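dude i think i finally got it to work??
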Amino acid sequence: MSMLFDPTEHSFHESHKLMIGSIVPRPIAFVSTISKNGVLNLAPFSYFNGVCSNPPTIMFAPARRGYDGKIKDTLKNIQDTNEFVVNIVSEEFVDEMVACATDFDPTVNEFDESGLTPGSSQKVRPPTVEESKISYECELHKIIEIGDGSPGSGFIVIGTIVMFHIDDSVYENGRVNLEKLGPVGRLSGNNYTKITNTFESIRKIKPDK
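look at this
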């Protein structure tokens, strides 16, 4: 027997809990942006994934703030500049990443708050995170708004990767070494996970006709 849950009969908070408790583990997009006034911003988002490889494209979904429905500084900066960087989060700087999850005033530089180091981007203005072993410089492709603008609704931000930054320590024979990358996944609440137990299941090759 299964419980049936109609989201139209419940608050978005309850739907949110079900989603973040079951869509797991979620990769984390640690997004660095810069405001039109030159203020750096750094924030994590766990609705994040790839879209396609030609051109290399990724997406992340910044929700409106749950208590007042306002958009987050990351989205505002991307709307103003059309640029952002997605940094992959490794175990070594999880606490610093979490320090950037607070809703700071737009004048606050989260690099300063967290102690993380701005790195040099090649094609966009926002910096990379120096501590991140993989970063993607992105130009905005499209922003899609979802919902009616109330708290809990949000946006899909689609970006084209114009430059990859890959630390030599994690790149071996054309592949990323996951053990050395040590990526972190988001669960619910204050819980995270790391890749410590993997297995292989080989798919069948399509037979010749």
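The first strand starts at residue 26 and ends at 27.
im so relieved honestly
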